[in-house]
């Protein structure tokens, strides 16, 4: 039997096939495993295409020499036609990191035949939930994770008290369920417990890694830049869709943290972070002005206002 590793939109897996089987048999097995009908296959280092044209499907697995290989499965299904989007003027501008260029959000990792990539999250007050939920493979992550966190807090009243939350559990949960409320360390700790996974949060300014859920078997890696969270992923090819990103690693694999720090150092040099201790912040609702996240949190508790912007002092 020949063992082959698969990387596909529905995750990583291993398959076994008799070496006397044909490529057609392998394609049938991959379709069953990935639930994809149309795809391309790449393997080797550097990556090369595996010819899956009908005339090539009679070749034996033994002749293809795929033993021990990792095959990347990239879907080629075209989406159903969708109506044209409304005029650009009526659409919100997509989030763009300050001073960032596309090739500055990735770092080649030749030893593993791919790239470490910063997947930038929308700047919509749900970036932490989107970063974590996307790494976990969830659809509509903000809504799903907010609901799960709320249930977890209310079902652990002895742990999540007013002293820990800074507010009564019911008030804290009510606020957390609103889509304009940020998530932070408390939420990361809870999500680590819910999903039994270590969440490694890499701070761009200090390059410190905060680990939520140490002792778990798997980890995901997110990047914190002061008031925003993004996600770290591994891509075999920068042209591949996000669905085939690798976003989970064994906690025994510290090389992923070393490589993520290399990328964070590049972000740090470009000042891709906000110093939350002394930056000047303005309330977009009442024009209140304060300094740092501590003041912003106090103002939010006093007024319920949650829309803040960073002010640039000339």
From TrEMBL:
Catalysed reactions, semicolon-separated: Thiol-dependent hydrolysis of ester, thioester, amide, peptide and isopeptide bonds formed by the C-terminal Gly of ubiquitin (a 76-residue protein attached to proteins as an intracellular targeting signal)
GO cellular component assignments: cytosol; nucleus
**Enzyme class per UniProt:** hydrolase
Q: What subcellular locations does the record give? A: Cytoplasm
PROSITE patterns tied to this protein:
OTU
* One Pfam short name: OTU1_UBXL
Statement: the UniProt record of this protein carries the keyword Hydrolase: yes
Major place of residence: cytoplasm
> Coiled-coil annotation: which residues?
none
Q: Which domain of life is it from?
A: Eukaryota
Matching Gene3D superfamilies: 3.90.70.80, Phosphatidylinositol 3-kinase Catalytic Subunit, Chain A, domain 1 (3.10.20.90)
A GO biological process held by the record = protein deubiquitination
Residue ranges for the region (Disordered) are: 75-106
EC numbers on record: 3.4.19.12
Q: Which InterPro entries match?
A: OTU1_Ubl, OTU_dom, Papain-like_cys_pep_sf, Znf-C2H2_OTU1-like_C
Domain called OTU: residue spans: 116-235
Which keywords annotate this record?
Cytoplasm, Hydrolase, Metal-binding, Protease, Thiol protease, Ubl conjugation pathway, Zinc, Zinc-finger
What residues form the membrane-spanning segments?
none
Keyword Ribosomal protein included in the entry's annotation: no
Q: What does this protein do?
A: Hydrolase that can remove conjugated ubiquitin from proteins and may therefore play an important regulatory role at the level of protein turnover by preventing degradation.
The record's section on PANTHER family has: HIV-INDUCED PROTEIN-7-LIKE PROTEASE, UBIQUITIN THIOESTERASE OTU1
Name of the protein: Ubiquitin thioesterase OTU
Organism source for this protein? Podospora australis
């Amino acid at each position: 039997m020949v063992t082959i590793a698969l990387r596909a939109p529905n995750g990583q897996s291993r398959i076994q096939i008799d070496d006397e089987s044909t490529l057609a048999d392998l394609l049938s097995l991959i379709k069953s495993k990935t639930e994809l009908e149309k795809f391309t296959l790449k393997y080797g280092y550097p990556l090369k295409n595996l010819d899956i044209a009908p005339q090539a499907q009679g070749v034996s697995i033994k002749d293809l020499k795929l033993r021990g290989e990792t095959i990347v499965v990239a879907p080629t299904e075209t989406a159903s036609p969708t109506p044209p989007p409304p005029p650009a003027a009526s659409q919100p501008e997509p989030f763009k990191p300050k001073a960032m260029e596309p090739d500055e959000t990735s770092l080649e990792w030749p030893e593993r035949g791919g790239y470490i990539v910063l997947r930038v999250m929308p700047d919509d007050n749900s970036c932490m939930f989107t970063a974590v939920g996307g790494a976990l493979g969830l659809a509509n992550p903000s809504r799903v994770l907010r609901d799960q966190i709320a249930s977890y807090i209310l079902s652990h009243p002895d742990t999540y008290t007013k002293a820990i939350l800074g507010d009564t559990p019911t008030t804290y949960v009510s606020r957390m369920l609103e889509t304009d409320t940020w998530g932070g360390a408390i939420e990361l700790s809870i999500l680590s417990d819910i999903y039994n996974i270590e969440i490694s949060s890499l701070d761009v300014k200090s390059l410190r890694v905060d680990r939520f859920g140490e002792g778990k078997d798997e980890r995901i890696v997110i990047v914190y830049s002061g008031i925003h969270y993004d996600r770290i992923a591994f891509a075999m090819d920068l042209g591949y869709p996000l669905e085939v990103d690798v976003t989970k690693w064994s906690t025994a694999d510290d090389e992923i943290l070393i490589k993520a720090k290399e990328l964070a150092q590049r972000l740090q040099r470009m000042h891709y972070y906000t110093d939350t201790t002394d930056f000047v912040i303005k309330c977009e609702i009442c024009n209140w002005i304060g300094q740092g996240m501590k003041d912003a949190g106090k103002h939010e508790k006093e007024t319920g206002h949650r829309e803040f912007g960073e002010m640039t002092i000339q």
